Amino acid sequence: MPVRERFQLLYISRLSPATTPACVAEIVRTARQRNQARGIGSLLVFDGLRFCQYLEGDAVAVGALVERIHADPRHDDFSLLHQGPLSGPSLLKGRNFIYALCYDDSLDSVEQTRGTHALDLLAGLLKTFDQDPALPGE
Prior knowledge:
Number of strands: 6
Helix content: 25-40%
Radius of gyration: 14 Å
CATH class: Alpha Beta
Number of helices: 4
Strand content: 25-35%
């Protein structure tokens, strides 16, 4: 069986006005389980208004997940910032799933950028976010 090239994707979306931030706990729980089962690594950042998510894995699996996210009524204003073959080191640093909170307007610069520059900005900001601790096995 041929080895598939790793694919990466970065998007930003807004929490739907019809949805409360309470849904984020369910999104995190579900994503943690489903993404691992599908071989998708994920970094999800939430700032109270926006989701910024980095995904990496098989291109078909990542594409199918992004289609579901785009159709999810909890997300509005979905904006694709980058997609393509994994270039450079992973933002995940060996973890399967990272959930982080952003308490300021740091995501503004990421939202206004496209391509690998958006990935670089997010990587630089990652250390400033409040990250959940790694779970056993991550």
